[in-house]
Amino acid sequence: MFDIGFNISGIVTLVCGPPYGGKSTYVQERLQPGDLIIDTDAIGAALSGLPVHQTPDAFKPLLFAARDAVGSALEFYPFVKKVWVVECCPDPVTRTKVMQKWRASFTIVMATPIDVCLERLAASPRPGNVDWEAAIRRWWDSYHPLPTDRVVAP
Description:
CATH class: Alpha Beta
Oligomer: single chain
Structural class: alpha/beta
Largest sheet: 5 strands, parallel
CATH superfamily: P-loop containing nucleotide triphosphate hydrolases
CATH topology: Rossmann fold
Strand content: 15-25%
């Protein structure tokens, strides 16, 4: 799946972190006109017509295909100067593969402490069929930093 890299002329920033870690907020606060966001959660919502995080599992192969189609098409759109790729990627092997696939110039890791993520979960529960507390804990159990990560903690 990760053996083909995209030929993107713009700057690609990979933003990773746990659920409720602030990945989307981080990107939204830095977004400039003409920037492109590749966010599987948003793509899933667009394809299914359901709210974010309610995409049925059966749709996931389609949303990954759509995400990758955008990555492939960027070769033909050199006017896109900045691409933000939002993924969880807690483990260094997966994060490295995603970095290589997207040819990311930078990797930002939102190292939002687990207690902060859980507080955000309690304040604004996400719908859907995901155990968000378990997902947050799994992310932190799997996370290992890479020397190239730019770690951001709120």
